[in-house]
Task: structure prediction
Amino acid sequence: MIQCFEDFCGELQRCGFSMGGGNDKGIFALIDFDWTTQEHINSPVRWHCGDPEIDPWEWRMRVLEERTDIAYAKLFFKTSGFITKEWYPYFYAVRRNGVNLEEAYEDGKISYTARKIYDIVADGHSALHEIKAAGGFGKEDKARFDRAMLELQMGMFITMIGRKQKRNLYGMEYGWNSTVFSTVEEFWGERGYELPELDPKESYDKIRQQIQLLNPGADEKNIRKFILGT
Result:
C-alpha cells in the first residue's frame, strides 16, 4: 500500500506511468480513489489535506521540483498523468512520430493558437500568466487558450516544469501559484537526458504490453486512446 510520497515514486518507477487524478479511467492509476471517495478507503493517503507526504495533489508538483526522472502533465484522456523517464521515450515516439511543431502545424495537426503558445514557451520557461500576457490572450480567449494548452501537452510538445507566483509592480508575490511550462526537450535536457529516437510501432506495442500487465482487463479501445492521446 502506498502510504507516502516516497512510496508513490517507488511504485511509479516500477509501473512506468499512471493516471494522475484518482481515477484509473479503465487503464491504471496508482492512487485509484479521489477526494470524494477517500473516506471509504483504508489508506493514509488524503487528497487536498495539504500535507506534502500524504496528499497526491502536492505530489504532482513535488515530482517536478524534487526529482529528475518523472514527468507530469495533462497526458491521458485530456487529463493529468505521470510518466517516468524510462517510459517517456515510448510515448514520445508514438505521440510525436518524429514530427516537430512546425511540421505538425504545416500538416494541420496543430492549431494557430497552439503554435503561438509554443513559440512563447520555446523562448524560455513560461508561467501560465506570462504566456497569456505575452500572447495577448484575454478572458474572451479562455476556451481557445485552454484547448491549445491541452493540445500541446497531449501532443508532447510542452510539459509542466513547476510553479511560481505572480509578482506586482513592486516585485512582491501575490495570489495563487501559476504553473510553469517548458518544451518537452528542454524539460528532459535540463535533467541531463536526451530523448532517443524510437520506432513508433514498436513503442506502441511495448506500452500496450505494459498496460496489459498492470490491468489485464483493459479494453482495447481504451488502451489505444490512452497511448495515442486521441
